[in-house]
Amino acid sequence: MRIVDQYESMAKQAMFNRYAQNSKRAKENKMFDAKTARKRILNGSGNWKESREPRINVERYRAAQEAMKGYKMKGG
Predict the structure, then answer these.
(1) From the CB of residue 48, how many other CB atoms can be counted at a distance below 10 Å?
(2) How far apart are the first and last CA of the chain?
(3) By three-state DSSP, how is residue 25 classified?
(4) pLDDT (tens digit, 9 = 90+) per residue, 6-42?
(5) CA distance 50 to 38
(6) Residue 13 · residue 31 · CB < 8 Å
(7) Pick from 21, 38, 48, 61: CA 20 to 30 A from residue 28's CA?
(8) What are 59-71's pLDDT values in tens digits?
(9) pLDDT at residue 42, as a whole number
């Protein structure tokens, strides 16, 4: 299990490196928000590892998808 954890950690590091090298404006908070993680740990939350700036609002995305189901482009 320890080796699996090490491989998982290496995979995450590789993704962080890829993001940082390819992003025009890389931000630390998009990869990991240490301030939020510390707050979650102090509050006893178990999901501190998921502390990062959210990419999209899932609810808004789903609502937009639902709204687009009936949409048809003109002329195409």
Answers:
(1) 17
(2) 53
(3) coil
(4) 888 888 888 888 888 888 887 777 777 778 888 888 8
(5) 12
(6) no
(7) 61
(8) 777 888 888 887 7
(9) 87
Q: What is the dihedral of CA 47, 49, 52, 54, to 10 degrees?
A: -50
In tens, the pLDDT along 45-60 reads 777 667 665 555 667 7
Q: Are 40 and 51 in contact (CB under 8 A)?
A: yes
DSSP 45: -
For residue 59, give both structure tokens.
């609810």
Give the CB-side neighbour count of residue 32, counting CA atoms within 13 A.
11
Which residues, including other chains, have CB under 8 Å from residue 36's CB and lie 6 or more apart? 48, 51, 52
